[in-house]
Amino acid sequence: MAAAGKHSGSKKRKRESAGAKGGTKPRFSKQTKPKGAKHFKKTAKGRPSKAKPAKTNQSEKPASVHGAITAPARNPSGSTKRKWEPAGTREREKPRFLKQSNSRPLKSSNKAAPVPKKEPKTPREHRLAAKEIVEARKRKRRPNYNLEKELVSLWEKMRCHNIEKEERLKLVSEALWMMSEKFLEVASSHVTARVLQTCVKYGSQEERNVVYEELQPHFLTLSQKKYAVHLVKKLLDTASKKQLEGFFSSLHGHVSSLVRHTVGSAVVEHAYHLANGSQRQRLLREMYSSELQLFKDLTLTNTGSLEDIISKLKLQKSLVVQHMTSIILPLLEKGIVDYSIVHAILVEYLTIADKFYAAEVIQQLIPLLSQQSVTDESLHASSKQKNKRRKKQIPLVSMMHTRDGLKLGILCIKHGTAKDRKKIVKGIKDHVRKLALDQYGSLLLSCILSVIDDTKLVSKIIIRQLQTMLSELVFDKNGRRPLLQLLHPQCHRYFTPDDLACLNASVPSLCTQEKVVSEDSPGKPLEGVAEVGPGKLLEGILEAVPEELLETDTDAIMNHNSEHDDSTKTIQSAVCGKKEAIVRRNELLVDNGLAETLIGTCIDTAGELLRSNLGKEVIFEVAVGGADGILNPLEDRLSDLHKAIASLAALPKTDESGGDHILENFHSSRTIRKLVLDSPAFAEILWKTVLEGKSEIWAQGHSCKVVSAFLESPEARVKNLAERELQPLVDSGVLKLSGKKELSLGKKEEVCDYLNVGHSSCWILEC
């Protein structure tokens, strides 16, 4: 019975579930029978008679759908067990909760299911199916998908190099016609932005103007988008002066926010390069103060530095520092230090910032300059292979394309700690060659050689690499600067006043200003020296030269100035190492073997160096032993160099190959003349090897300057050596001495203005 009860109960549950689904009428017991309900009519088989379903009101839901659970009707035998019938032998009743409609018959429940799509079997079918899915998704996601496909097809044709110009113009016109009234949507898409950029590149000026006028109101929005920023830069490249002026006017009030934006900063930098002097100042002044940001007329003032603007407009210095700090700190946090406009604002900020803010900016800037490349040792081998070709150079190297960037690098080296300097030197390990051949990078290396006391580290990373490329550096305009800095530090003959100003740059609030003290009055500083730069200092030295010397030869002026330099301590860097300069130079130049290698290079290429406009200065400094006699410990090697130069001069005029004789060449003759005046040892070797008994042959042309230098030498032994043979040539008029030059100081200044050099360099002009 128990088994029968379980079996009956399971059937009961099946019946109830079917009733709950609306398949049959609900059955009620006597206890749960509601009013108006009728008993089921029993048939011979114990089944209720099948009747047609009654029409129900469509607005009312039948109660049998969610009715109470009822017990099944009993058989005459008293058993609740029912006879099982297959489902296919009885007709299916329509659910009573469905709406009946005369116009639209209900779908039969036994209708066959839709046939599923054929699954792809071959790889080609898989690719086609995946392509269809992707196309459907793109079409649903992009409203202009069909337009993008058409524009891309035109773009593939117009960007070919072998296409004719007329055909390309037709394609450009067709593409612009398709993009009409949709330029903003096209410029914002990463697919069609390139198409529009190509149209601007190859289109006519009228078509460019149309695109510019359509997108001009949206430039600020497009400048902050990843792909549209390149289109904005292309439009600025092809814009007229009037259009550029309008763009700068639209930038007013938004420069600070765009500079801090990782994408928009590129547009500001591009506009900064295209701008003239006044427009650049307008961009910079907007970041100086909130007043300058709000009032456009204040940015039109014709003033130079930030200090002049503060004094002229009577701005509060504390508020200016606070406003600039709010702009600069986010830039350093995001690592935006590669742009020249950022370099300019940082240099101006450090000139007025107090000690706390200046130190904070320096400390945040140094880690950015010394960070390593993208590749990491902990990466997987496959990741290393992918990142090998896209190594990211450190920001310090990329900053060297501007003079302000150079100043920032020098300030970080001078005001950084020993650990910071060590990180910077290690960071440029793979970029020494690039820096040495760069205009501003060579000055950075010169600063490192003059400031950092850790000579072992500098020798290991910098000197060794310079030593392997000496044959290239001695002939390069920029590459020779680090060598000349070691041989003759901060010489005005080899460094311009602007270069010397960069090498002597410092943060006023982080260092105490040094004063030049004369040996004659050690307690009294020279007046006006603390406030002037290198150019003004050279002008002061020039004014101190007696008038009679100004009328004599240039070499006499140079000799007087060298004596003046010996009696006066020159301005040194505000922040330098603890070691003495001569000790540091000796460790870097002599102890590491750089000097010996340099002398060997000069011996091997003596003829080329003497004839070179740039190399002659290197071989001159090496031959005279450098400043302060730094190369005197290598006298034997210097003697070999002197003999090598004399052997080239001893060759006959017709037998020497490689051009003019070194005594008749313009550059080499003047270099040898200076060697005779400054190096008595070389003068003796040259006289005994070349000129003794043959001076009359070389008394004409450019070589006469070399011969006359023996009589003009400040050394008595050199004069006595050649006076007996040369004096008769002077008396007979064959040999002409330089004599006095009737060239006044004002005339020299006019010549300097014509040559576009500072007046401080006028005394080094050669006659």
UniProtKB/TrEMBL annotation:
Residues 146-490 form the PUM-HD domain. Residues 99-111 have a biased composition (Polar residues). It holds the Pfam family CPL. Residues 27-53 have a biased composition (Basic residues). Residues 1-126 are annotated as: Disordered. SUPFAM superfamilies: ARM repeat. Keywords: Repeat, RNA-binding, Translation regulation. Pumilio repeats lie at residues 214-249, 250-285, 427-464. Residues 82-96, 116-126 have a biased composition (Basic and acidic residues). This is PUM-HD domain-containing protein. It comes from Platanthera guangdongensis.
